[in-house]
Amino acid sequence: MTWLARTQVEVPCTVEIEQTPESLHAHVTLDAGFEIEPGDAVTVHDAPVSVPYGERLVVRRSATVSRASRLERAWTKLIAHLELTELYEVSFSERRSL
């Protein structure tokens, strides 16, 4: 992997969509233990986008994983860290006046 090159990998996946009173979700599971890392992008091909209310759908599809370059991965990690530290900026002192 070079510093600027983005690579693409085709991988089979399972798409699960459920819209029932118990759950409303859509999940994609990549096969063969394929790990997604910071900065990677996944495009699922021909995936359904919805199911009728009260139903659950599980289908097999293929996905293209666009691997981030080393530079993109480092940038993504840095930005994520900086955004996370914004959450730390909380104060427990009372500043309200009644």
Give a verbal description of the structure.
This protein is of the alpha+beta class and 98 residues long. The chain has one helix at residues 70-87; strands at 7-19, 24-30, 41-45, 55-67. It has a 4-stranded antiparallel beta sheet with strand order 2-1-4-3, with no helix packed on it. Strand 1 and strand 2 form a beta hairpin.
Largest sheet: 4 strands, antiparallel
What structural class is derived from the secondary structure elements?
A: alpha+beta
Structure annotation, total helices: 1
Shape verdict: flat
The end-to-end distance, rounded to whole angstroms, is: 59 Å
Radius of gyration: 20 Å
Q: Could you report the average pLDDT, rounded to the nearest whole number?
A: 87
> What level of helicity do the residues show?
10-25%
Per DSSP, what share of the residues sits in E-state strands of 2 or more residues?
35-45%
The number of domains is: 1
Low-confidence blocks of residues: none
Q: How are the strands of the biggest sheet laid out side by side? A: 2-1-4-3
The total count of strands amounts to 4
The helix-strand sequence is EEEEH
Task: Kindly summarize this structure in a few lines.
This protein is an alpha+beta fold. It has one helix at residues 70-87, and strands at 7-19, 24-30, 41-45, 55-67.
Highlighted features:
alpha+beta; 98 residues; flat; 39% strand; four-stranded antiparallel β-sheet; 1 helix
